[in-house]
Amino acid sequence: MDIFIQQIINGLVLGSIYALVALGYTMVYGIMGLINFAHGEVVMIGAMVALFTLRALSGLPALLSVPLALAAAAAVCMAVGFAIERIAYRPLRRAPKLAPLITAIGVSIILQHVAMLVWGRSYHAFPPVLPASAHEILGATITSLQIAIIAVAALMMAGLTLLVQRTRLGRAMRATSENPPIAQLMGVNINQVISATFVIGSALAAVAGLMVSANYSIAHYYMGFMLGLKAFTAAVLGGIGNLAGAMLGGILLGIIEALGAGYIGDLTGGFLGSHYQDIFAFFVLIGVLVFRPSGLIGERVAERA
Asked: Which of 118, 167, 238, 264 could lock onto 248 through a cystine, CB 3.0 to 4.6 A?
């Protein structure tokens, strides 16, 4: 039971990160019908910018250096997200759907190689952002950093929900998602709404980048690839295009992966170890696509011609 609770805690931490990244995928898909496969690299850029900002501010207390590093990472990621939409995707809005998909993969590869040129191939140790204190819950252990990750992720998901449901920008986003031509006739600036969607998703990606690097104490130029695939799986699991689905899918995928990593050795008689935990995300993806392609909550975005 102690191991089970510990894996649930680990899964909630992982799931909170996956949910933040999945929101970026689902927001873009909900409005444009596009899978932005470069989103994982935006997470990586956020982690790397936060890392080198923290190193530059190493003489400051953590209460000051961490918010400054997060602000720098968010600013850079928002600029990258805006540039990706403006340069790579906007000219292809009326193109066949395969064209922006291939472009997204190309942008992902370009960002990986730019990051490799800027920060190198090496793995970088991420400095601690909180004191290494641990708390016991029913025999399991949770650190202050893990508590902070879950709390911050929950606040950001709640804030995004309020933004979409209660603000003028949120109404414009929902109108654009429902029917872009009619929204434009009603006075909605489609270009601004789509750009804002990329910018908001990139800001969430910056936070997720700092979280995942702080949680594993490491960052490198290739870290966004697998994280992006898992977050995409989480978005599909919950129902891509649906904000609540992305949150639910992220949490569930994190728990499934953590439980799988904890018990896969016992289930296979020691043949597979915890380092095979990545396979669970793809088992989930295959299962969802076969048995429930619309996801757990279901697709709410109307199919466009």
From this structure: 238
